[in-house]
Design goal:
The protein contains 9 helices and 15 strands. With 257 residues, it is α+β, with helices and mostly antiparallel strands. It folds into 3 domains: 14-57, no CATH class; 65-138, no CATH class; 151-256, no CATH class. A hairpin with a 2-residue loop joins β3 (34-37) and β4. The N and C termini lie far apart (90 Å).
């Protein structure tokens, strides 16, 4: 017969690092007796008590995001692309983010054993659940999740016509181009992000509850109306080629810019 042991004896036997607190009821439990739900570590009593939606409505979920674009960082001296990996910002340390724990097996597989140990700072050996943290300083000359997408990322997937000129200005809401060097004959093209989540954050009230289209063509910078709104870049190219400005439009442009 096995005798019952106290919690203190269990901690001594397994080690204090094996104990954790349920993110809902705060009960101290063994890590091996927890379940993961939406990034939360739950005891067996709380696991399944709420749906993912209910947890989100209660503000319990630290949103899990995904690196949607190329994000090159250094593990030791080796470059690695985090595109496709999920992450979340640390609740207790807002200046840090961590790779989502369910993606760590994939990361371990894609890195060498040495680099994974380096990336986890040894936590893969000392803890049942290793972790990979990054600070903003780790995202130099690449997509910075602390600041959001660079404007270059908004159109990185597009094959821009050679005659187009980048006229993006820092105080504008979106990056933009003109369709040729002659500003009076050129149309002005505004480009939103390919990422619908980002476009929702850039939401334009003019479109009501609808998601703003990715591309908008205006007569010129400062023009108060759109000539074409679409999600198709091919349609943008075709429309500009088939609709050169007439004399009246060129005159109107000169009055604005």
């Amino acid at each position: 017969m096995f005798k019952d042991i106290t919690k203190e004896e269990l901690i001594k036997f397994r080690g204090a690092d094996s104990m954790s607190n349920c993110n809902l009821c705060n009960k101290e439990v063994d890590e091996r007796e927890t379940q993961e739900q939406c990034g939360l570590s739950l005891c067996l009593s709380c696991e399944g008590k709420y749906t993912d939606k209910e947890l989100a409505e209660q503000g319990m979920i630290n949103e899990v995001k995904t690196f949607e674009v190329d994000t090159w960082i250094l593990f030791d001296r080796d470059s690695f692309n985090l595109k496709g990996y999920r992450y979340k910002f640390c609740e207790d340390k807002k200046d840090l983010l961590e790779i989502y724990d369910q993606d760590l097996p994939k990361l371990k597989e894609e890195l060498s054993e040495y680099l994974f140990e380096w990336a986890t700072d040894g936590s893969s050996k000392d803890s049942l659940i290793p972790f990979v943290y990054f600070s903003e300083d780790d995202f130099q000359d690449t997509y910075n999740p602390f600041k959001g997408l660079h404007w270059e990322d908004y159109y990185a997937d597009l094959d821009m016509p050679n005659e187009w000129v980048n006229v993006s200005y820092g105080n504008d809401e979106l990056p933009s181009f003109i369709s040729q060097k002659d500003i009076h004959k050129a149309y002005h093209i505004w480009i939103n992000s390919f990422n619908e989540k980002v476009r929702k954050e850039n939401h334009d009230l003019d479109f009501g509850n609808e998601l703003a289209p990715r591309f908008n063509i205006t007569l010129c910078y400062g023009s108060g109306y759109d000539l074409l709104s679409t999600n198709s870049f091919d349609e943008v190219i075709k429309w500009i080629k088939e609709n050169p400005k007439n004399k009246q439009q060129i005159k109107e442009t000169k009055e604005i810019v």
